[in-house]
Each structure stands twice: as structure tokens, then as C-alpha cells.
Amino acid sequence: MKHADIKETAEALFNEQRNPFGAFTLGSETHHAVTIPDAVRRCRWIAVDMNASAFGLFFVSPSPERARLVPCFDSDYPGIAVATKFISGANGEEIVRHTRISTEPRWWTDDGVPATAELFGDFAWTERMAALVPGTSGIAFPVHADRGQCGLVVFLGSEMTLQQDALYEVHARCFSLFAAVARIRPGDAGRMRAISKRELECLKLTANGNTSEEIARLLKLSVHTANQYLTQSTQKLNAVNRNQAVAKALRLGLIE
């Protein structure tokens, strides 16, 4: 199934209103007005339909020097799941290269459940890959949008249920969802105030579990200054506290 075919399937699927959020076509107002929380709900519904226990939506970074997956959200939203850190790390380099040139889904199984391998192994138009997250099973759907943007929608779970025909529908829904998120993501980034290198360093150390006192010692700052950097980055990310600021920075690919 080609990119254009998947888009057509997406339009037909959502015109028939088979999802609880109403019509969601590529040209509809709903498509343009979607928010990240709404996108999370839509992705969660797809996960429910295939009995997946976790999910995540990722953008492929535009940098040619180091292509990587940048998390947008996952099933722990507004937090970040441990699985997401694996996927957006070195484990995702191979699938990034694949995503840039193909829409063919990739699956893996590393949880010791034979039924999962049997389920995925019967699918046409898919191939097996190395596990994105150790000790799990999952399937990754490459997706593309306007302006050359591409990404990945990933579902994980040891008890997923999916038929061949449903595989195409799920992929079409992922395409439609990604197209909607891709439209709002640049706007969100554009409204964000620039975050300094020092502020990002403090956020990264916070993500690693360091306290303000530890951050101050590591960066040779006063505790007051370290807290000031964290407060400024929290405000710039429009977060309610530093933990949410860390989560947003990870989703936007500002820190790793």
C-alpha cells in the first residue's frame, strides 16, 4: 500500500466515523484544530482497538548529521515513558533510516511470548527488526506529512490482536493523526521563547535525577542561580513545574 493509498484509506475510514471523536478527514476543520492532548486520546483509542498496552508518536529529526527520533508524546503523557527513552536513543537509528525512505511497517518481539511472533509473522507488507525496547514486542508504523516531515507511531504489548485488513486501517489512522500533529507542532515551537544553553543543562541534570544543590555543584553555580535557570526554562516551556518542563523538553527533543 502506497502513501497515497493510505491517505485515501484514512479519509474513508474517518468519513465513516468509526472512531469516537467524529469525522476526521485530511481536509476537515477537526484535522486543523487538533491539540496534543486530543492527539494523545486519538492514539490511545487506536491502541485500545489493537489491544496494545503502550504507544508513542515520534518525529524524525531534520538534522542530516545525526538522524534520530524525537518524541512528541507517549502513553505516559504528559510524562515520558521509559520505553520512549530507548526508542529515541541509539536503538532507533536503524528505523530512522528506514522511515525516511519507506512506509512499510516494522515489528519486533523480544518478550518470549510465541503468540506475538506468530501474529506479526503472518502479516504481509511488514518485516521483522531488532527490538526497539528490550524485553518487549511491538510494531512501528512509518508516517509522512507535508513539508517533508516524517515520523513513527509505535505500539507495544504482548497481547496485541490485529488482522491483516486492520493493519492497513491502523496505518491509515496513524498517517492521519501524524498529519494533524505535524501541522500544529511547528506553531507550538514558534511560540516558544528561546532557551539558553545553561537552562537546558539544568533541565538535563534535573531529568537525570539531580537536585538543585547537586546541579549547582556540577555546574559551579550558586543554588539560587541554578533554581533561577530552572524557573526560567519552566516559564519558557509554559510548564506548571520543573518536572513538566523536563517532560516537555524531552518531547521536543531539546534534551536527551
UniProtKB/TrEMBL annotation:
<dbReference type="InterPro" id="IPR036693">
    <property type="entry name" value="TF_LuxR_autoind-bd_dom_sf"/>
</dbReference>
<keyword id="KW-0804">Transcription</keyword>
<dbReference type="InterPro" id="IPR036388">
    <property type="entry name" value="WH-like_DNA-bd_sf"/>
</dbReference>
<keyword id="KW-0805">Transcription regulation</keyword>
<feature type="domain" description="HTH luxR-type">
    <location>
        <begin position="188"/>
        <end position="253"/>
    </location>
</feature>
<dbReference type="GO" id="GO:0006355">
    <property type="term" value="P:regulation of DNA-templated transcription"/>
</dbReference>
<dbReference type="InterPro" id="IPR016032">
    <property type="entry name" value="Sig_transdc_resp-reg_C-effctor"/>
</dbReference>
<dbReference type="GO" id="GO:0003677">
    <property type="term" value="F:DNA binding"/>
</dbReference>
<dbReference type="Pfam" id="PF00196">
    <property type="entry name" value="GerE"/>
</dbReference>
<protein>
    <submittedName>
        <fullName>Regulatory protein LuxR</fullName>
    </submittedName>
</protein>
<keyword id="KW-0238">DNA-binding</keyword>
<dbReference type="InterPro" id="IPR000792">
    <property type="entry name" value="Tscrpt_reg_LuxR_C"/>
</dbReference>
